[in-house]
Amino acid sequence: MVTAVAQRLAAQRREINDTLARLSLSSENLQQVKDKMRVELERGLRKDSHSTASVKMLPSFVYRTPNGTERGKYLALDLGGTNFRVLVVKIRSGIRKSVRMYNKIYAIPLEIMQGTGEELFDHIVQCISDFLDYMGMKNTRLPLGFTFSFPCRQTGIDKGSLVSWTKGFKATDCEGNDVVEMLREAIKRRNEFDLDIVAVVNDTVGTMMTCAYEDPKCEIGLIAGTGSNVCYMEEMRNIEMVEGDEGQMCVNTEWGGFGENDCIEDIRTRFDREVDEGSLNNGKQRFEKMTSGMYLGEIVRQILIDLTRRGLLFRVPVPNREVQSCINDHVVQKLSDRLALLQVRAILQQLGLDSTCDDSIIVKEVCGTVSRRAAQLCGAGMAAIVDKIRENRGRNQMNITYLYAMRLSDETLMDIMKRFRRELGNGLCSDTNPTATVKMLPTFVRSIPDGSEKGDFIALDLGGSAFRILRVKVSHEKKQTVQMESQIYDTPEDIIHGSGTRLFDHVAECLGDFMEKQNIKDKKLSVGFTFSFPCAQTKLNESYLLTWTKRFKASGVEGMDIVTLLNKAIKKRGVDIMAVVNDTVGTMMTCGFDDQRCEVGIIIGTGTNACYMEELRHIDLVEGDEGRMCINTEWGAFGDDGMLEDIRTEFDREIDRGSLNPGKQLFEKMVSGMYIGELVRLILVKMAKEGFLFEGRITPELLTKGKFETKHVSSIEKSKEGLTKAKDILGRLGMEPSADDCIAVQHICTIVSHRSANLIAATLGGILSRLKDNKGNPRLRTTVGIDGSLYKMHPQYARRLHKTVRRLVPESDVRFLLSESGSSKGAAMVTAVAYRLADHTPTPSCKSKHPMSMRDST
Ligand code: BG6
Ligand code: GLC
Ligand code: GLC
């Protein structure tokens, strides 16, 4: 008999243990929860996965925690927790720093929580009204902060549309609407008092801010109440849903939704599923339903009912429905505390549950298991957040020591834009031109192609990454068409660094070869010469090289007219050099051929530069006041007078020291293709030396100048294949990067190329704002013709540039037009007009002051 009872009890015990075992999580389980939470956090932050992420990571538009200098008197509402409260908060700063609060709690009846939105907000406003009466403040229009503890998609601190109700709320016509607007409208409906609603925040954000006021290190806010949720300070650059990369923003994770994509089904039990099915939002907030106060009592109740049904608990009497509903989270909390069994029994007694001593033990165990699981799950989630913050900080540390100076805020960029605009003015004005760094060279090109150009031309294109010779035929049969054939020729280093005579002989030889291949040896063709270096022109076909830039350094050319030099080299060949243009000008003209609005040309290639159409009356160096002329800015030299010292880094200085032209083209050396790869290499070497990368290992290849190319930067930067590319490229330099190394290298590439795009946006912004002022229109509508390998090879770069320009010059509509066919088509256009204006055509009198100019002045 005794053994039979003992056996039955043992069997019962096993069953109970089995039931509860499903609710006890192992450390592996928890580790997995943490890892999955981390994945969902990242998915919520990223643009491409945000819409399907179960953790929504909602931007809060709170950029920083309080610093103690806050002051004033505010009204606050707190809706969504256990209580609805209205408060007045008085904050003092300074020595008498203090916060005083007066508040009143109001009930929100169930029928209002689940009635219509209008009823709900009318009720809220009625409570406010009562509170203001109570405080005697009806007539003071106070600023109001609204803690609204539900997921809101915010677009500003005072705008937030409700994503979906959670917890016990289900009022109609609210989801998708702006809660601030709804509150404003309800205040208007009541027409009794007025309030300025200045902010809407989630309770987690409010909590973080409250605590940060006491402890500035606070950067996470956790609510474990009716609902469960966390917010924390995230780096702006990681929040893809919000523009901008600098600083931080608090993100409301809404982690209660974690698991909605079934990723934690392995740890959910049938009790969790029952609780879910009986809730207002079946399938939603699955993590919340395992962790928060509103549901813990429910889970315990489901388990107790199950155990009772299976005859394992409360044999006399079975609890009726009413009693069941008495078990709420407070009871669970109490019961899972360290209470003596007698006290447990007393509580159960109060609930009308007649329990044996065994029953109390079991109930206490169930409560303990459920609340322990909740705490552990929150802990696992929190660990994911802490890891994320730690990682952010690791990266920031890196940024602070090396790269911080490379990240330029919009404020700095604006400032650089202003400095550049000043430089533009200095270069144009005859008094200041001699000392100006940005030379603003007149080009004698006076208009964009008008469609009447035609002919058969040769174009030389020297100075970019390739030396090209082309034949360009522009005809007018039917539509205007352009036909081009081209060949690339080598420019070996010994030639571009040798004597000028040899360089031009080489050019002439290549030209001879090209003409022979084209079978035009005996034809007399006009040549347009894209010569991508700073030249002082006196007319279209007289062009004195001021100084070599980029890779070129042939002797005896600086100060000489390159048309003369080339003519000398060509000797007898029947070609006529009609025009020399800078590549920026060629690019503007090429694009202008397709889009008449084009009035700016920029190159972001081996070097960088821009030209644009300036009003002739502003160009002191050229006579005449009517019309416009294209100015080659030579912006690469911006900063040569020390103007950019505040933003140049040790790496920029090192690049300059090792270059062919130290002290010159300082802006170009921060941004253009010839230098970007080297910049990254220098950073990698320094970081490796200090042990931050590659475990401190550096191969001789990585130490070799030029081994890390700009095209590598572009391909590593791509988000998808970038990391594999980093491994490949570094592998080819003999390195064995770890996964973390690859991430860091990608990060560095991004920072360097981002800086380049931002700086170009600032200088281009300077030109655009000048154009806008020249035209005197409130808005500028224009097209920028653009070319160069850095810009072309790298979609991210282009996007970034466009975005920053739009931020810096908001009052403009800029079209960026890529010059698909290089600068030569444009050079041919210039040549065509020059040809027409020269003696070759029967054009009668030419009244233009500059006979070789683009403008046909008849
Ligand atoms: C080419 C133009 O497309 O781009 C050249 O035809 C120009 O005139 C060049 O110099 C600039 O880019 P990169 O990258 O070759 O220096
Ligand atoms: C719910 C809400 C969330 C809130 C949390 C705690 O999860 O969706 O916004 O922060 O409850 O109140
Ligand atoms: C260099 C040259 C400039 C050219 C640019 C782009 O900056 O000085 O003339 O336009 O490179 O090739």
From TrEMBL:
Record domain Hexokinase N-terminal: where: 16-213, 403-592
Broad class of where this protein is predominantly found: cytoplasm
PROSITE patterns (alphabetical): HEXOKINASE_1, HEXOKINASE_2
One GO term (biological process): glycolytic process
The protein's name in its UniProt record: hexokinase
Membrane topology label: Peripheral membrane protein
An example Gene Ontology CC term for this record: mitochondrial membrane
Domain Hexokinase C-terminal: 219-393, 600-833
Highest taxon, organism lineage: Eukaryota
GO molecular function: ATP binding; D-glucose binding; fructokinase activity; glucokinase activity
EC number of the protein: 2.7.1.1
Family designation: Belongs to the hexokinase family.
Keyword set, alphabetical order: ATP-binding, Cytoplasm, Glycolysis, Kinase, Membrane, Mitochondrion, Nucleotide-binding, Repeat, Transferase
InterPro entries linked to this entry: ATPase_NBD (IPR043129), Hexokinase (IPR001312), Hexokinase_BS (IPR019807), Hexokinase_C (IPR022673), Hexokinase_N (IPR022672)
Organism listed in the record: Hucho hucho
Annotated localization: Cytoplasm; Mitochondrion membrane
Catalytic reaction(s) noted: a D-hexose + ATP = a D-hexose 6-phosphate + ADP + H(+); D-glucose + ATP = D-glucose 6-phosphate + ADP + H(+)
Known pathway: Carbohydrate degradation; glycolysis; D-glyceraldehyde 3-phosphate and glycerone phosphate from D-glucose: step 1/4; Carbohydrate metabolism; hexose metabolism
Signal peptide segment: none
